[in-house]
Design goal:
alpha/beta; Rossmann fold; Glutamine Phosphoribosylpyrophosphate, subunit 1, domain 1; 21 helices; eight-stranded antiparallel beta sheet; binds 6-O-phosphono-alpha-D-glucopyranose; about 600 residues
Length: about 600
């Protein structure tokens, strides 16, 4: 959460920073700001989106070849002009942007107040900056040294970037727990929370590690640890094209990403699954196959939509591999005193690879000697790097805040892992194994067919867009799909939506059922079909409105439901990939019909780098 951008070099910094902030807006859009150095420090900030900031800056002198910019997701202090970053030191010379949370801000603030400092914002960032300034003044040390001393006192997570009026040819940056990428150009450097603001200028990047400090000039990058020892920067080549982060003719990134799913699933399977040969090639799994085969338990840790992928994986791993699975919210797991044994396999699922709670949960499991397998979308991200092994989802950059293509990619990767382990463990027979490989291979074509239903789904969306509440129900593999459907609707349309196991609905939510309540059933043909038909009848008997996602040709449910959305027939194990897509489109079209900014829903952020 929060996006940071900085530039130093021969070009004008402002246009680069502004464009970068627009790319990073998915990380937060409560306020935005820039600080530029050109014969003095100039700071401009504004509540609202980056475009609001841009508008207020028209006509201003923004010339500068060094600058920093920030787009905020509020933690300490409401979204407002004064809480927007960059913040400025008491002497007006230093300016800083920050992504993360300083947990001991209260203590630091008290110390500073005792020395007479006052604060013009409610942020932890301003406190950290003034703490650095105070050390700089008292120790008579340079800024670099002051930052190092200050960070040793800081509890929490941060990426910070500081500019100094007295030293206008240097940027100082540091990281712990939040992401920082440095792009290396010819006589210039670009800093950002992810690579998207950088790729059009250079493909050479350095991912800064925790507890590292970067001292950056136009033509020099020095990395040091907090002990003041130099660290050799590891320069990597970005495997990312500009087109992948642009809308490409779609109205929204979310719609583009939904429609990309035939390709992203194809990319995810490519080079791994060979249905004819009956093989799945995944080096990360193969190299650790004994760990998977002998695991007493698999613990899946994740947050948000990724947690829903974990729930589906629980059903699949238990069915195919006969290994007990637990699915944990990373935020709960990290603070419990979980029982973790050496032989446990932890699967951490994350689109961004930067979710703070998931990172700390992994570290905790590692301390207990568990083997960590990462299922991650963002290549080179923190979770990809701290896992012992892993598999990428290869869905490409996901920009819409509500996760779509990353989720289906996660499902496909998890299905492949389960199948590979099951065949090695001999807990699946060859015939079913080959059948499921074929089913996976057919997914891209089936998704293409599914997407042709978009107008029918839009019609359903328009019919129910004014609902204030809704229920999403499913059983078995489709129960987590119902949870994901409800989450999508909440995120994008702000309609209250509750996901429930269809049978459990009788123990409470049925009290809500009346004529005005839309109930979405995920009811594709599987081993629970008859049971879910009964659940639909229970809702209809109470005059609820039933929208059912069914397998094409299902006459029984078609007759009972008020509206149906068909998906192609598929084995129940792979069916969640297909039944999820109508959930995504339904939420999308309702959000659009209500006039909301579906790519940037209120209060949300794509990458949650605070706990
Ligand atoms: C945020 C995003 C969700 C995402 C969740 C977990 O809440 O808005 O879309 O599912 O974080 O993120 P991760 O990157 O770890 O999958």
């Amino acid at each position: 959460m929060c996006g940071i951008v900085a530039y130093i070099g021969p070009r004008q910094a402002y246009p680069i920073i502004l464009k970068g902030l627009k790319r990073l807006e998915y990380r937060g859009y409560d306020s935005a700001g820039v600080a530029l150095l050109n014969s003095g420090l100039k700071v401009y900030k504004k509540k609202g989106k980056v475009a609001d900031l841009e508008e207020t800056l028209v006509g201003k002198d923004l010339h500068a070849t060094i600058g920093i910019g920030h787009t905020r997701w509020a933690t300490h202090g409401e979204p407002s002009d004064r809480n927007a970053h960059p913040h400025v030191s008491a002497n007006g010379k230093l300016s800083m942007i920050h992504n993360g949370i300083i947990e001991n801000y209260g203590q630091l603030k008290q110390e500073l107040e005792n020395k007479g400092y006052t604060f013009s914002s409610d942020t932890d960032t301003e406190i950290l900056l003034k703490f650095i300034e105070d050390i700089q003044i008292n120790n008579k040390s340079g800024l670099e040294e002051a930052v190092r001393i200050a960070l040793k006192r800081v509890v929490g997570a941060y990426v910070i970037v500081i500019i100094d009026e007295d030293n206008p040819d240097t940027l100082i940056a540091a990281r712990k727990g939040s992401p920082l990428v440095i792009g290396i150009g010819k006589g210039e450097h670009f800093l950002a929370s992810d690579a998207t603001p950088i790729i059009e200028y250079t493909k050479e990047v350095v991912y800064v590690n925790d507890y590292e400090l970067a001292i950056i000039k136009s033509d020099e990058l020095i990395l040091k640890n907090l002990g003041n020892e130099k660290v050799t920067p590891f320069i990597q080549k970005l495997d990312l094209e500009l087109a992948a982060i642009e809308k490409g003719g779609y109205d929204h990134f979310m719609l583009k990403e939904i429609f990309e799913q035939p390709d992203t699933i194809f990319d995810c399977l490519r080079g791994r699954l060979d249905a004819e040969a009956g093989t799945i090639t995944m080096a990360g799994v193969q190299n650790h196959i004994e760990q998977f085969k002998n695991a007493n338990r698999i613990i899946i840790i994740a947050c948000g939509t990724s947690w829903h992928a974990g729930l589906i994986a629980e059903y699949i791993f238990e069915e195919l591999c006969r290994t007990p699975v637990e699915v944990e919210y990373a935020s709960e797991f990290r603070y419990r005193n979980p029982v973790i044994h050496k032989g446990d396999v932890i699967i951490a699922i994350s689109q961004s690879g930067e979710t703070a709670d998931t990172i700390v949960a992994i570290e905790k499991a590692k301390e207990h000697g568990a083997f960590i397998f990462g299922v991650v979308n963002a290549v080179g991200s923190s979770i990809a790097r701290i896992s012992h092994a892993g598999a990428y989802t290869h869905a490409g950059p996901e920009i819409g805040v509500a996760s779509t293509k990353a989720f289906t990619g996660q499902l496909v990767v998890l299905m492949m892992i389960a199948l590979k382990v099951a065949i090695e463990k001999k807990t699946i027979d060859q015939k079913r194994y080959l059948h499921l490989l074929n089913e996976l291979q057919e997914l891209p074509d089936k998704i293409t067919l599914m997407l042709r239903e978009k107008d029918a789904i839009r019609a359903v969306a328009n019919k129910y867009k004014d609902a204030t509440d809704s229920l999403y129900l499913g059983r078995g593999y489709n129960f987590p799909v119902a949870l994901e459907g409800a989450l999508k609707l909440k995120e994008i349309s702000y309609i209250h939506a509750e996901g429930y196991p269809a049978a459990e609905m009788k123990h409470g939510p049925i009290a809500l059922v009346q004529e005005t309540l839309p109930v979405v059933f995920v009811a594709t043909k599987d081993s629970y079909h008859e049971k879910i038909v009964s659940n639909i009848q229970e809702i209809k008997a109470r005059k609820g409105k039933v929208i059912a996602v069914i397998t094409a040709g299902d006459e029984i449910i078609t007759k009972m439901a008020d509206d149906v959305i068909s998906v192609p027939e598929a084995d129940e194990i792979v069916a969640p990939v297909l039944s999820t897509i109508p959930m995504q489109l339904l939420a999308y079209y309702i959000g659009v019909a209500k006039g909301y900014d579906v790519d940037k829903p209120r209060n949300l952020a794509k990458s949650v780098t605070v706990e």
